[in-house]
Amino acid sequence: MTPAFEKLQKHLKQLPGLGYRSSERIALHLLVEKPDRLPALVAALEEAAKSVRRCTRCGNLAEEDLCGICGDERRDHGLVCVVEQVPDLVAIERSGAFRGVYHVLHGKLSPIHGVGPADLNLAALNDRIRGGTVRELILALSNDVEGEATCHYLTEHLPADSGVTATRIGFGLPSGGGVLYADSVTLKSALDGRRTYS
């Protein structure tokens, strides 16, 4: 293979979810099988790099100051779902089950990896809370040590006079899943997240 091909493959391999074989397959597809698709891909990447940025309010992807969700007056702006990353927001949005707004932290606290409060999108969240429109924070962070630590930090640092309630999403057994094959963490979460059956 040529040096230019190897350079392209190396850069593709750095993308999440792509290994050596996948990056090689994509590079060959773009350069050999479908070279007519390459200019459009390059143009789309350049356009996205110029125009896509973080929403100034929530941290979601946006092309204006506010993303489409924050700019939508039909949403419940008092109900804020706090997520780790933009793909988490996308997953919840896709479900159609939530009509509030979001706040993207862009990570979670992890002292082992050198991620502290200053590395997260917390200043904008504090501004929203101080603005007085937020009544509930739904903490939709992962059910692991770092996620729990981040939830604890957020609830501990809520201003006492804010009147904001912090809630945690429930975790547990997937729909159609049985108890027999569930791991201990999932079972504990299912029991802890139980609600009144009616």
Structure report:
- There is one protein chain.
- This protein is an alpha/beta fold and 198 residues long.
- The chain folds into 2 domains: 3-51, RecR Domain 1 (Helicase, Ruva Protein, domain 3); 75-172, Dna Topoisomerase Vi A Subunit, Chain: A, domain 2 (3-Layer(aba) Sandwich).
- It is 40% helix and 13% strand.
- The chain contains 7 helices and 6 strands, in the order H-H-H-E-E-E-H-E-H-E-H-E-H.
- The protein has helices at 3-13, 20-33, 38-51, 86-95, 122-130, 145-156, 184-192; strands at residues 53-54, 61-62, 76-83, 100-104, 136-139, 165-168.
- The protein has a 4-stranded parallel sheet.
- Helix 4 links the parallel strand 3 and strand 4 (100-104).
- Helix 1 (3-13) packs across helix 2 (20-33).
- The longest helix has 14 residues, at 20-33.
- It is globular, with a radius of gyration of 21 Å.
Low-confidence parts lasting 5 or more residues at pLDDT below 50?
A: none
Biggest β-sheet description: 4 strands, parallel
The multimeric state of the shown protein is single chain
Record field, number of beta strands? 6
Quick rundown:
With 198 residues, this protein is α/β, with parallel strands linked by helices. It has helices at 3-13, 20-33, 38-51, 86-95, 122-130, 145-156, 184-192; strands at 53-54, 61-62, 76-83, 100-104, 136-139, 165-168.
Topology:
Elements: H1 3-13, H2 20-33, H3 38-51, E1 53-54, E2 61-62, E3 76-83, H4 86-95, E4 100-104, H5 122-130, E5 136-139, H6 145-156, E6 165-168, H7 184-192
Parallel strand pairs: 3-4, 3-5, 5-6
Antiparallel strand pairs: 1-2
Helix pairs in contact: 1-2
